[in-house]
Amino acid sequence: MSKRLSAFFITFGLILCGLGAMTAIRFWANTVEPELATSFLFPTPKKLPQFTLKDQHGNTFSNTQLANKWSLFFIGYTSCPDVCPTTMGKLTAIYPTLLKDIDLQVIFLSVDPQRDSQDILLAYMDFFNPKFTAITGEHAQLFPLTRDLGFVYVMVGEGDDYHLDHSASMALISPEGYKVAIIKPKSTTPGTLPQILTSDLISDIRQITHLY
């Protein structure tokens, strides 16, 4: 073998080694767990079971509507005095920022079907953000879905004079329909109420979606 040919193979081998190292570095960078401020990333994403509900326009909303985009779920009810309007206002404020680099839909899951009719849900979404989706159904449908999402709720009181205690967390669903993360409120200082800070929410969602 000539010296020129030997030099070629040596150079070619070095290039391959370099490319392999670059690939390994990129793979490692993309698999390092992000430093999340207010979220828990599931080690193994969980497939969301089949469900069928109705949205604020009277249309069927099921797993099909989760395909090919990220979905951010949270639960509540339109007459909620504190958590729900605060969350809706926060999500409305940051939604344009998130849409810059993420195809994301926000889904408000009402767990008060007795009072949250289609018209009320439509008015609620129109007030905060018409691009958001509100869905609900009978409690027999809502209980298993909220459990699968990692939420809980309970009716407190009797007759028409009742309210609902419910989770203040959010669930992030992948475009393939898997629950990949739960976003939870936390206290920044002792003695303060737990909350999800806007900056933390933006940062966590961006990191998680980038990871996938």
Keywords:
8-stranded mixed β-sheet, Glutaredoxin, two-stranded antiparallel ribbon, 212 residues, alpha+beta, 5 helices
Question: What can be said about this structure in brief?
Answer:
This protein is an alpha+beta fold and 212 residues long. The protein has five helices and ten strands; from the N terminus they run H-E-E-E-E-H-E-H-E-H-E-E-E-E-H. The protein has an eight-stranded mixed β-sheet with strand order 1-10-9-4-5-6-2-3, with helices on both faces. Strands 7-8 form a two-stranded antiparallel sheet.
Structural class: alpha+beta
- Residue ranges: pLDDT <50 for 5 or more in a row? 7-30
Order of helices and strands: HEEEEHEHEHEEEEH
- The shape, in one word, is globular
Gyration radius, rounded:
23 Å
Assembly classification: single chain
Distance between the termini: 48 Å
Please, what is the CATH homologous superfamily of the largest domain? Glutaredoxin
Order of strands, main sheet, comes to 1-10-9-4-5-6-2-3
* Number of domain units: 2
User: Percent helix among the residues?
Assistant: 25-40%
CATH 2nd-level architecture of the largest domain: 3-Layer(aba) Sandwich
